Amino acid sequence: IYEFDPFLGAYPLLPPDSTYPAWLKLSDHIKQSTVSSVFVAEGFVDSYDDQIEEELSKAQQTLDRQQKAEAAQAAQNDKNSESSTSQKRTTDTILEESEDTMEVEQPSTASGSSKSAPAKRELVKRSTTVKFTPINLRASFRKGAVGEEVTRYSLDKSWLLNHLFTSAYHSDVSRFLGEYQAAFTTMLLCYHLGAFRQWKAMTILVCQSAEATPSPNFTNFFVAFIKTLDSQLASIPSSFFTDLLFASSDEADITANFVEISLKSLGRNILSGLRHGHCAELRKPMRQLQKSVMETFEWKISGDFKKASTKVVEIDVNNVPLMSDDDEYEEEGEYAPVIVE
């Protein structure tokens, strides 16, 4: 490492005793298989975002619908212009047909070009796009689910996490975290919007999986995830989050961002598991993450992760469980139930 020029890489290596190991922590799960599957252009990253066209297409469709609705309303209010409007539509149709004919004839008359411009753009797009695993947080329940199951897994992303972890990542922790790290480093070094979306989706997916957090099947996964996220947050300044891209959906707190909200959700999930005697292995990494974000970003994650929490259930004379202090804790503050009369 000391033989490298510290300014020739994608990131600085000064001082090498601390900077280089920090970058290793950001990529220790990225393997050659991750690079091959995510960066299809032999490891090269292009600024093209494959989701931009889809979003622009949806926006254009919405705009077209609005324009059609306005045109229909104008036609209804002005009946006298019906004939002229009809004539204009006929003229537009003729012009569109003429343009379509020209587009069809153009490739055959072009000289020295074997492919049309749209075909070339599609070829470039396929060779330069970054391909992440699709994650739809809005469809976080199984197909065919109804009623209570839809409600539960719309809030708790555990079903979606388990489904993706077993099907897309083949129950391999390094495969999941490798893509997670690839998304983060691509976002950090290349300012790639698609990579940011993937990192955001994967962060929310894990942190909002309340049912999976205390599960023994995911213990090693959550330990590695918390350590990875801690290393990522330690590598970026606090000003990195002062942007609309990081804004959360909580309109009551405009200063919050999705990372802070997600970490608080993760903390509550771990505390809930600890109260029931589960996920004790998550105390140490979560305590370190809690300390780090408080020092760097002044984000307060509630909960004491220093010692094991036990839940004692008292029984009254009628064999009815009495409410414990932990149950009372859930009824306080912003998580208290709202009584509608």
Architecture overview:
By secondary structure, the protein is mainly alpha-helical. The chain has 2 domains: 50-106 and 116-127; 132-304, Alpha Horseshoe (Serine Threonine Protein Phosphatase 5, Tetratricopeptide repeat), CATH 1.25.40. Helix content is 55%, strand content 0%. It contains 13 helices and no strands. It has helices at residues 19-25, 32-38, 50-77, 82-109, 117-128, 148-155, 158-167, 173-190, 193-207, 219-234, 258-275, 283-297, 325-330. Helix 2 (32-38) packs across helix 8 (173-190) and helix 9 (193-207) runs parallel beside helix 11. The longest helix is centred in the first third of the chain and has 28 residues, at 50-77. The radius of gyration is 27 Å and the shape is globular. The model is unreliable at 102-114, 309-317 and 320-341 (pLDDT under 50).
The fraction of residues in strands falls at under 5%
Judging by the overall fold, what is the CATH architecture of the largest domain?
Alpha Horseshoe
- Mean pLDDT, rounded to whole units? 76
| Unreliable residue stretches | 102-114, 309-317, 320-341
**Integer count of domains:** 2
Radius of gyration: 27 Å
Question: What's the tally of helices?
Answer: 13
CATH class of the largest domain: Mainly Alpha
Overall outline: globular
User: What proportion of the residues is helical, as a percent range?
Assistant: 55-70%
Can you tell me the CATH superfamily of the largest domain?
Aar2, C-terminal domain-like
What is the CA–CA distance across the termini? 68 Å
**What is the β-strand count?**
0
Which structural class fits the helix and strand makeup?
A: mainly alpha
Q: What does the largest sheet look like?
A: none
**CATH fold topology of the largest domain:** Serine Threonine Protein Phosphatase 5, Tetratricopeptide repeat
Encode the helix/strand succession as letters. Answer: HHHHHHHHHHHHH
